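U., I forgot to send this yesterday:
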Amino acid sequence: MALNIPGGEFLTGSLVILLIIVIITIISLGGVIAEYTSRRKVPVGTIRDLIYDINAAGSVEELKNIISDAKIPKSQKKVLTEIASSEALGNTSREALARKLFEFEEEKTLDNLQKTDIITRIGPTLGLMGTLIPMGPGLAALGAGDINTLASSLTVAFNTTIVGIGSGALCYVLGKIRSGWYDRYLSDLDALIDAVLDYMNK
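Result:
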């Protein structure tokens, strides 16, 4: 339903999208909080010791046990175990498998960041549109002495601006937090994959 201000019919679609953005932003905030409480922070020392343990493994089965007992995320264990189980492959094929598994993990992290990245860009843009569209009719109403229409236009303009910029700013922060987590996750995984490949290619 169009808003009861001049130009309001053009704002209806933008406000619906802004409402969806607010809902997605709230869900994303909850997701980050849940991820923070459940994620395992892996110290650099743990990765270092695990690399030494991998290198010192006496057999592939021992290597798998080391990976299974390691204090790292389950998703990393799954990747490393799959590489350790590739005894039938040649070195080149094993490295290709490792590269593909790493790329898959990288794609998953990018997918998680995509929603907040989109809102970071679209939110302020829609907020600006919601500001500018009613300002023209509002100023025209001011010239005609229609204060009520001007007040309605300004209210909509300010509200859409706040919602758009606020959603974009919050998603920017959430994206930065997650990006830091995922960069560390991928860096650790890359180092551990290299260690397993080095052992398997002996």
